[in-house]
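Escalated from tier 1: glutamine holo job.
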Amino acid sequence: MKIGVLALQGAVAEHLRMLEEAGATAVPVKKAEELADLDGLVLPGGESTTISKLMHKYGFMDALREFGSAGKPIFGTCAGAILLAKQIQGQDECHLGLMDIKVERNAFGRQKESFEVTMPVAGVGADYPAVFIRAPYIVEVGENAEVLAKYDEKIVVARNGHYLAAAFHPELTEDARLHKYFLEMVKEYRS
Ligand code: GLN
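Tier 2 regenerated the structure:
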């Protein structure tokens, strides 16, 4: 199984390490052509507006919409979840608009810019450690999307078919269970 990590900005190396630990072959993706032989893709955290600009500049917008529409799984973490979302609170436009969720950016406020909690994630475990850094949260999910975790009554992990979104940084701990969960999704969707 070959999984790419979009490598335009953000926490790329850590995702590569976790994906390898979870059992995949992981490669950084810097050019749209490199999507061709991938089974799935991770959109890392960072700054969604910056990553989006670079995605436009390097021809990733249409290429990733095609990738997703072809049924290839995508896992968006933190800024990556914002990039996947069909709706962003307070903004008319979204970025990729592939996943049926609405997100709000920087949703945990200034006092709680960055924190770590242990929480249950459905299908993953009761004690999953999650690192939040200027994190968004998922305001609502569409009819076909599933809520996998909530923190502070806010949705922080959701799945919509072959799309998975986490508001936090699953690559910043030693726990590869959410990456393993994503690899199971990839197996399911691989034809
Ligand atoms: N606050 C960032 C944004 O809005 C996301 C932060 C992150 O990815 N750690 O894009």
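The mean pLDDT is 96.
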